[in-house]
């Protein structure tokens, strides 16, 4: 579908998370960040017993501590320095971060303009970073082996004017994904049977080798 001239429906790519900021690493590195220290974390952020905030903190800490799936490296990062360090540890120093420019076209029909495959469209490795819900800005970053990454101009269907510049990622190997993954539910398939491609949503990002 990601070919020049294709008309497609754009999903809702808007960032639904509350606005927050990264902490400087000098501060974030000193804050407790584990399920073992949950009582201390709750105290710092004034999270009451059985409150929504308590559940948010507990769920995010558990997800950050979950063992990586086969072939995955993962890290929750609370500063831009930590994010860069993780991306470089997986991909080495010659890296570029990419994301979709804006939310124009979200939920509507759009036309695909010029498409460019990163690293010539070859199968590569990337680090994807997705926001996690937490009192301060936190990203769940993980290495994603066997992907293709694309950039595409997104055009207004009627005027053909460029309204956005999108980044899309295709997961070539889905064999280790859970059968209950939302992508399989939506597409009526299962692990290893299909590739799964999606846009990079607002404020999420993918790191890959520089061209």
UniProtKB/TrEMBL annotation:
Entry-linked InterPro entries: BURP_dom (IPR004873), PG-associated_BURP (IPR051897)
Organism superkingdom: Eukaryota
Keyword Transferase attached: no
Subcellular location: Secreted, Cell wall; Secreted, Extracellular space, Apoplast
Main localisation: secreted
Pfam families per record: BURP
Name of the protein this chain belongs to: BURP domain-containing protein
Domain annotation BURP: ranges: 1-210
UniProt keyword terms in alphabetical order: Apoplast, Cell wall, Glycoprotein, Secreted, Signal
PROSITE patterns: BURP
